[in-house]
Design brief:
The chain has four helices and four strands, in the order αααβαβββ. By secondary structure, the chain is of the alpha+beta class.
């Protein structure tokens, strides 16, 4: 299946809410589709990465599956203030969230990976 067909197949099964966000959870119950998605996403990164990093929740599901497919390490990214380590031992990156109610950032422990 080509990439356009795969994207269309995904869009046909995932619901969209009133503000344009999609719920990816239905993808996970279709094992063949999930494997195909991971294989397609990973195919252009084979031999090019040492780690896959992904934000918590659904990102961990997809990211860990991609890391397994690529035979590389997985680095889970956490939301700000969730890691039990001193701030000086963390790498933190701000990002723009859907709602600007509070500071949005992702964090990892500096020693979780090597360059």
């Amino acid at each position: 299946m080509n990439n356009e067909d795969l994207v269309q197949k995904i869009l046909n099964i995932i619901p969209e809410d009133s503000v344009g966000r999609y719920d990816l959870l239905p993808v996970f119950k279709d094992n063949k589709l999930f494997v195909e998605i991971i294989s397609t996403l990973a195919s252009s990164h084979i031999g090019k990465v040492d780690y896959v990093a992904a934000p918590e929740s659904i990102g961990w599901i997809i990211g860990s599956a991609m890391a397994k497919e690529l035979d590389v390490g997985f680095v889970p990214l956490r939301k700000i203030d969730k890691l039990p380590y001193p701030k000086e031992t963390l790498i933190s990156q701000d990002y723009d969230g859907e709602y600007r109610i509070s500071r949005k950032a992702l964090e990892i422990k500096k020693l979780n990976f090597r360059r």
